[in-house]
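# nightly structure sweep
# worker-07 picked up a monomer target from the shared queue
# config: single-sequence mode, recycle default, output format = structure tokens
# input follows
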Amino acid sequence: AASIAAMILTTEALITDIPEKEPAMPAGGGGGMDMGGF
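# output follows
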């Protein structure tokens, strides 16, 4: 489970680091939050 959490955090960081993905960032962030809560 820890590995999955780390992977999600890494993905979130990468998405946030890419300005071009800014419009999709809210959707990606929401998905990450949902999976994290689960």
